[in-house]
Amino acid sequence: MAPPPRARIPVYLLTGFLGSGKTTLLAAWLAQPALEGAAVIVNELGEVGLDGTLLGVTDQAALVSGACVCCTGLPGLEQALEDLFWARLQRRMAFPAVAVETTGLADPAPVVRAFRDHPLLRERYRLEAVIAVAGAPAGAALIDRHPEAGAQVLAAQALVMTKTREATDTDRQALHARFAALNPHAPVLVSNHADLPLDAVLQATGRGNDAQVGDTSSPDLAEPAWPDEAKHVETHPHDHPQAAGGADDHDHLCDEHGNAHDHHHAAQASFVPLPQPVARDWLLIRLHTLAGALADDLLRVKGIVALDDGRRCVVQFAPGDRRFDVRPLDEAPGPAASQPGLTVIALHADAERVSAAFLGRGHA
Ligand SMILES: [Zn+2]
Question: Distance between CA atoms of 64 and 46, rounded to whole angstroms?
Fold first, then answer.
């Protein structure tokens, strides 16, 4: 017999397009009551995990890397949740909740379906909230260009608009308009530098503390209403005249039965290793060369680089950013520290093209 909903482990699914600020927000939320002591599953497209390092979690974190949880990585996510369940049951781990951070390209719908269809997930876990994050400066353009970004908005119960201070009024209004068109009933909250408490998000969805504590009545009513399949399928493939790549753009969407195999994302992740310390100026020149060569195809740069002054820095770039963000890495280098180098996510660019573009070889 399945345990009642309240006895199941709550799961918070955090999604959002590449560079929208998911990791920053999750890092702050992990210190707040709803997620204190939570196990974290980080899903990254690149083979080299970085978000776990940035989140500062090691003990209770599982990494599903090199695959995306909405497609090839879904079995990995299911396995990670099964492993966590058994570890908790056998008291090898203790955690009150699980937070799942998807890749920036993930469509949350197949993950949501897994919590309904997968026997162990259905019986032992309760999907508490699906939250989508979108950066205000580039959010509307990304939704127009990438079906995944729209799918994230569509599947969410709460929408978080980040980086509003870096956006123009026009940017913000455009993103509000996309939110309203895709998911008019989801509350929209604003966060700058992760100043939005998770509890405010849960309250906005009607699933805050008050509803959780001691709520044993009407468990069925507490079950969230998920977007239905028809809505999910219908919203993807059309209305994206600017989408690059033609037929490719349809491949990475899930089919109507929710099968996660056989589809992929038009964008891919490549890793540029930088095993030796480099000069900061050299790094900045290389990053600008990369950005110039890949132009709009460049979706994300993220990595940890050792500088020749002995420091390590975190490099980040997201669509809509005016410049690369290069800042010292705060945390003491732990044993799980990432391999130095840059994960680059781009459209129409394999590792060879990315590497050539970074090194300025030829006109990639
Ligand atoms: Zn995927």
Answer: 10
Domain 267-359's class?
alpha beta
266 CA → ligand 1 middle, Å: 10
Separation of CA 105 and ligand 1 centre (Å): 6
CA of residue 17 to ligand 1 center, whole Å: 12
Write out the residue limits of the CATH 3.40.50.300 domain(s) in the chain: 5-251
- pTM listed for this prediction: 0.78
Return the number of other C-beta atoms located less than 10 Å from residue 242's C-beta.
9
In the chain, which residues fall in CATH 3.30.1220.10? 267-359
Distance 148 CA to ligand 1 centre (A): 9
Where b means 16+ CB within 10 Å and e means fewer, 130-156 reads bbbbbbbbbbbbbbbbbbbbbbbbbbb
**Mean pLDDT for each 10-residue chunk of the chain (364 residues)?**
77 94 92 91 75 64 79 90 93 92 92 96 96 96 94 97 94 97 97 95 81 37 40 34 35 40 72 94 94 91 92 88 85 61 90 91 59
pLDDT at residue number 228: 43
Domain with residues 5-251, CATH architecture: 3-Layer(aba) Sandwich (3.40)
Spacing, Cα 14 to ligand 1 middle (Å)? 14
